[in-house]
From TrEMBL:
Gene3D superfamilies, alphabetized: P-loop containing nucleotide triphosphate hydrolases
SMART domains per UniProt: AAA (SM00382)
Source domain of life: Bacteria
UniProt cross-references to InterPro entries, sorted A to Z: AAA+_ATPase, ABC_transporter-like_ATP-bd, ABC_transporter-like_CS, ABC_transpr_LolD-like, MacB-like_ATP-bd, P-loop_NTPase
Organism: Pseudoclavibacter caeni
PROSITE patterns associated with the record: ABC_TRANSPORTER_1, ABC_TRANSPORTER_2
Protein name from the UniProt record: ABC transporter ATP-binding protein
Segments of skewed composition (Low complexity): 24-33
């Protein structure tokens, strides 16, 4: 049985020899280890909405290091701040305080135009609602971000990605001529084509039946394992989270627990325990 450990308090982390550590566990460790293995990093990140009585802290001094090629799931109760964390890390929303990096670029230091450029060239997105352009074919949808970023289309990489995703024979179809699962695979191909530093997936199976959802999760996991693609996925679903290498359980704007290779039962128990402790679930 896999148990989910309480996330370490960075201030109280036991000191172990560098070679003993399975992973760079904090921004300070990351800096020591060098940033080339690191896809995404946050240091003392804060996001506060509103003021006074209506103030909500959706990100409460979060430290996070995500290694390249890692598939991470962020799970947690509704309203805990998962989407806000993803949006701030991806440069879709601004931080109130602290720092976040994608690769070597500090996201929290960029203006709107630079953020747009960073997102186009270095970030892939997969959304619950697919977000494909209905008037474009599957192939045109897949190549759109690369064309917007004025990148040359790498035909052999495109062929490899669509073959691996099983949509090579669907490229001339428009989204309305594809099933939900096929549309989501087109969206994954679009996200992978620019070989981004990170793909953010927001409830990618939320609109799919369970068979298509399983297929999409398997493909995301293979993208990490076989193509070295870093993926951060927000989900409500412990079964979906169990496909990830690493699960972060988010509550009240903090990473409350985390685990590697946890099964769905262990994840569900951890969220339920946390909910009981925090009064978040009945
Ligand atoms: N633009 C905003 N203005 C004010 N408050 C906001 C805004 N966006 C989110 N919030 C608040 O921040 C908190 C975290 O919201 P967020 O959507 O990040 O949570 P979540 O864990 O992703 O929730 P869900 O699982 O329901 O999507 C909530 O209390 C929400 O009401």
């Amino acid at each position: 049985m896999t148990t989910l450990a309480t996330a370490p308090d960075p201030g109280q982390r036991p000191q172990r020899p560098e070679a003993d550590r399975p992973d760079a566990a904090s921004p300070a460790d990351a800096a020591r280890a060098g940033t080339d293995r690191i896809a995404v990093r946050a240091e003392d990140l804060v996001k506060v909405y509103g003021r006074g009585d209506t103030q909500v802290t959706a990100i409460d001094h979060v430290d996070l290091v995500v290694s390249r090629g890692e598939f991470t799931a962020i799970m947690g109760p509704s309203g805990s701040g998962k989407s806000t964390l993803m949006h701030v890390l991806a440069g879709l929303d601004t931080a109130t305080d602290g720092h976040a990096w994608i690769g070597d670029t500090e996201v929290t230091g960029l203006g709107d135009r630079e953020l747009t450029r960073l997102r186009r060239a270095h970030v892939g997105f997969v959304f619950q609602s697919f977000n494909l352009v209905p008037t474009l074919t599957a192939e045109q949808n897949i190549t759109l971000p690369a064309r917007l970023a004025r990148q040359r289309i790498d035909r052999s990489w495109l062929d490899e990605v669509v073959t691996r995703l099983g949509i090579a024979d669907r490229l001339r179809h428009r989204p309305s001529e594809l099933s939900g699962g096929q549309q989501q695979r087109v969206a994954i191909a679009r996200a992978l084509l620019t070989r981004p530093d990170v793909v953010f997936a927001d409830e990618p199976t939320g609109n799919l039946d369970s068979a298509s959802g399983t297929e999409v999760l398997t493909l995301l996991r293979r993208s990490a394992r076989e193509m070295g693609q870093t993926i951060i996925m927000v989900t409500h679903d412990p079964v979906a989270a169990a496909y990830a290498d690493r699960v972060l359980v988010y509550a009240d704007g903090r990473i409350a627990r985390e685990a590697r290779d946890a099964d769905a039962d262990a994840i569900l128990r951890a969220v339920a325990e946390l909910g009981a402790v925090e009064g978040l679930v009945d």
